[in-house]
Amino acid sequence: MSILVVGSIAFDSVETPFGKVKEVLGGSASYFSIAASFFANVRLVAVVGEDFPQEHLDFFQEKGVDLQGLQRLPGLTFRWEGKYGQNINERQTLSTCLNVFEVFQPEIPEQYRSSQYVFLANIDPDLQLKVLKQVNAPKLTVGDTMNFYIEGNLSGVKESLRAMDIMTINEEEVKQLTGETNLVRAAKKILSFGPKTVIIKRGEYGALMLSRDSIFSVPAYPLETVCDPTGAGDSFAGGFLGYLARNRKCDDKSLRKAVIFGSVMASFCVEDFSLNRLKSLSYSEIEKRFGEFKELTKF
Amino acid sequence: MSILVVGSIAFDSVETPFGKVKEVLGGSASYFSIAASFFANVRLVAVVGEDFPQEHLDFFQEKGVDLQGLQRLPGLTFRWEGKYGQNINERQTLSTCLNVFEVFQPEIPEQYRSSQYVFLANIDPDLQLKVLKQVNAPKLTVGDTMNFYIEGNLSGVKESLRAMDIMTINEEEVKQLTGETNLVRAAKKILSFGPKTVIIKRGEYGALMLSRDSIFSVPAYPLETVCDPTGAGDSFAGGFLGYLARNRKCDDKSLRKAVIFGSVMASFCVEDFSLNRLKSLSYSEIEKRFGEFKELTKF
C-alpha cells in the first residue's frame, strides 16, 4: 500500500550537547518518508529550492520514495536553525528562513490521488485541507500540527482536525490547543473536534494513544545518548503509518503495534544527527528493537 | 511476611487546583504503611507529638498496622504546608515545622528486629543507617531519599545507598544525586553506588526500574483528575514492597509486578487529599486497576 505525505524538506543547522551540524537534510516530510519507507511505498509532495543537491534526491530514491510530487522552485530551500541545551527536551529556535516553502502550494499528481494512506505533516492547516480536496477518499488520514499554526491559525487547525482520522501532536501543543493541562482531558477534547484517535507524543516519556473506547500508553525506549531529537515526531509518524499501511488494518490491536513501530523509528532517529541513523538502519534492527520494547514493558 | 517501615508522620496543609485541606494526616510512613497494609503486615516506627489524635491511631490499627514502634514525644507533630499549581507537577513548600521529628531517634522494638522486609522512607540517611544496625539481616531493604538530604548530607546518602538492595527516587532527585541529565546513565550511576536495583519515580510519566541485567518501564495510570500528588511516591513504595513481601520472591518477574502494584497504589493515592482514597479502597479495586494496567500497556 502507498502512503502520500505532504510536508517540509529543509536544511537544518543544529547544535546539541553532542555536537553541531550545518545545513543537513531535515524537514517533516524527509523524516516521515524515510521512516515509513521501511514498511511501505511512500509518495512525497514537498518543495525544494535550486540549491537542493542530487545526493539527497538519490537518498530518497534509494529508499524507494516516489519523488514525482516533489517541486523544485527558483530560490533557496527552507532553512531552520536550532539549539538543544543540557536538558535535551528544551529546544531553542535560532532562525527560520522559509524561502521556497513560503510559497509552497501542494499539487497532488494524478497518480497519487488514490493513495489509501495520507500523512499531513505540520504544514499550514489550510494547505492540509487543500491536499485532502485533491485526494479520493483515503482509507486513513493522519495529521500533525505545531505551535506556530495553533497560535496563528487556530480556526484552520480545528477545521483540518475535523478531516483527520488520527491526530499526532506533542504534549505541549495539545495543552496549548485545548487549554487543558491534564492529558486525558486534553486528548478527549481533541476527539470532540473530530478525529477518532489522538496520539500524544511525549518525547523521552513515550506516547499516549486515546480513542473513544481505548487508551494505550508506552514509555520511550530508554537511550543512554540522545544525540539530536530533531525529527523524532515525524519518524514516529512514519513508523506508525508505515506499519498500518503494510498491514492494511486499523483495528485497536494494529494501532497499538503501530505506536510501537513509531516509537522504534523515533528511538533510532535521535541516535544521530539528521537522518544519519535511518540511513544506516536495517529492517532486522527495527524488528530487534520492537522485541526490546516487549521486554521493556512486559509484566 | 512483615514489613518494617521507618519514616515520618505529619500533619499536611495542602492547596491544589482542586481544593485546600488543613492539618490532615500525611508523612512518608503514613502513606507507605497504609498502602502496604493491603498486602502484608506493617510495623511502623515513627514519632508523633502530644497533639496526635486517637482517630488516626485507630485508622492505622484498623488497617492492621502495628504501632508498637510509634513514639509519642512531648511537643507537636511534624507539620508541612505546600501548594501545587495548575501544573500539578510543580510543588511549592510553604512551610516545614519539624517539631518532634527534629529529635526523632528511631528505636526498633525487639520483636521488629527480625523483619524480613525493610523500608527506609526519606528520613536523614544517618538515621536510616542506625535503623539498619538494629535489624537482623533482612531479606530486602528498600530506601528512599529526598533533595534536602542530597543537598545537606550527600556522603550520608551515599553511605546509606550502599546498604540498600533497592532505591526508589524521583526523577529530579536522581539527576541531582548523580549529576546526570540522562536517566539511564543516572540509574547506572546509582547502581555503581551499591543497590542492585533502582526505581525512578516519574510522577505522571510513570516509573523506570533498572537492574544490572534488566530494564522495565511503565507509564502512569492516566487519570482525568489528579487531586493531590502528595504521598504518591510513598504509596508507590508501599504497594511495591507490600506485593514483594506477600509473594516472598524478588526475581525480575516479581519486581515488575511489584512496580505495577506500586503504580496502582500511587494512582489511587492522588485521587483525593491525604489518605482519603486509601481509606475507602478495597482490594478488589486494586486488582481491577492492575488489570487496567495490563490493558493500558498491552500490544
Report the sheet-strand fraction of chain A. Answer: 25-35%
CATH topology of chain A: UDP-N-acetylmuramoyl-L-alanine:D-glutamate ligase
How many runs of DSSP E, i.e. beta strands of chain A?
13
Mean pLDDT of chain A: 96
Number of domains of chain A: 1
Succession of helices and strands of chain A: EEEHEHEEEEHEHHEHHEEEHHHH
Structural class of chain A: alpha/beta
Task: Give an account of the 3D structure.
The structure is a homodimer of 299-residue chains. Chain A is α/β, with parallel strands linked by helices and 299 residues long. Chain A has one domain (2-167, 230-297): UDP-N-acetylmuramoyl-L-alanine:D-glutamate ligase (3-Layer(aba) Sandwich), CATH 3.40.1190. The first copy, chain A, is 38% helix and 26% strand. Chain A has helices at 28-36, 54-62, 125-133, 147-152, 154-162, 171-178, 183-193, 232-247, 252-269, 276-280, 283-297, and strands at 2-6, 10-16, 19-26, 41-48, 65-72, 78-84, 91-97, 117-120, 140-143, 166-170, 197-201, 207-211, 214-218. In chain A, β8, α3 and β9 (140-143) form a beta-alpha-beta unit. Chain A is globular. The two termini of chain A are 35 Å apart. Chain A binds chain B through residues 86-88, 181-185, 188, 202, 204-206, 208, 210, 215-220, 222-226, 253, 256-257, 259-260, 293, 296-299, and chain B through 86-88, 181-185, 188, 202, 204-206, 208, 210, 215-220, 222-226, 253, 256-257, 259-260, 293, 296-299.
